Amino acid sequence: MGKNLIQQRRGRGSFAFKSFGMHFKGQAKHLSLSDNVLQGKVAELIDCPGHSAPLMKVVFENGQEMLNIAPNGVAVGDVVSCGSTQDPKNGSLLALKDIPEGTSVYNLELVPGDGGKIVRSGGTFAKVLMKSEQGVSIKLPSGKEKIFHQDCRALIGNIAGSGRTDKPFLKAGKKFHACKARNKWYPTVCGVSMNAVDHPFGGRSSHHKGRPTTTPKNAPPGRKVGLIAARRTGRKKK
């Protein structure tokens, strides 16, 4: 018998599980590819509840504005560039082919022109390792190396907000409201701690699942928990 799990309730999109996007200051993304070499000035640093790092508002010489993630050390009044390879400063936007090897970058594009998709959390950065015919090799914060198209763009520097995890929340209510702002469910409870009506692993007085954790492919949606269609189970033979 399938059960209505918490992740299924969230997927319905009811008001109880919606994020308050009306409080977000905007979408942090790069300018379009059609823009030429531009010089801009950081007009404002913005605190947005939808991002783990502060945002910077850049006003360019042609009047165009860009809202993007702020690097560490940037200040109001700093001059940044878009597409200029001469003296690239902290927060400048360049293609990977124009960024020197060993430079710290963030907010990388997966496809040229998508506006930036990865390395966006506070305090993180990636490294430009080497350039080849296949593309530009980047070392991601996870330690994994990935090859990107040479026309993919990125911002120079380290993302600000690296000390955000140093200060404890102290109260459960503070944690709840911080998660609520970004549509993160809090608290997270394991299935074996739930009642039997709430989860297939729930029930009884102990942390005992009481059934196999490998789920067959033809199981109903409420039973899709545990190792879903696992290729193998048990200890691996030497």
Classify the secondary structure makeup into a structural class. Answer: mainly beta
Main β sheet profile:
6 strands, antiparallel
Strand order of the largest sheet: 5-10-6-7-8-9
Could you say what the CATH topology of the largest domain is called? SH3 type barrels
Gross morphology is globular
Compute the gyration radius: what is it? Answer: 23 Å
CATH architecture title of the largest domain: Roll
How many domains, as an integer? 2
Provide the helix percentage. under 10%
Strand content: 15-25%
Q: Could you please describe the fold and organization of this structure?
A:
The chain has 238 residues and is mainly beta. It has helices spanning 6-11, 172-181; strands spanning 38-46, 55-60, 65-69, 79-82, 93-95, 104-106, 126-131, 136-139, 145-148, 153-156, 214-215, 227-228. The chain folds into two domains: 6-16 and 183-228, Irregular (Ribosomal protein L2, domain 3), CATH 4.10.950.10; 25-156, SH3 type barrels (Roll), CATH 2.30.30.30. The strands form three sheets. Strands 5-10-6-7-8-9 form a six-stranded antiparallel sheet, with no helix packed on it. Strands 3-2-1-4 form a four-stranded antiparallel sheet, with no helix packed on it. A two-stranded parallel ribbon has the order 11-12. Strand 8 and strand 9 (145-148) form a beta hairpin. The longest helix has 10 residues, at 172-181. It is globular and about 65 Å long. The model has no long low-confidence stretch (mean pLDDT 89).
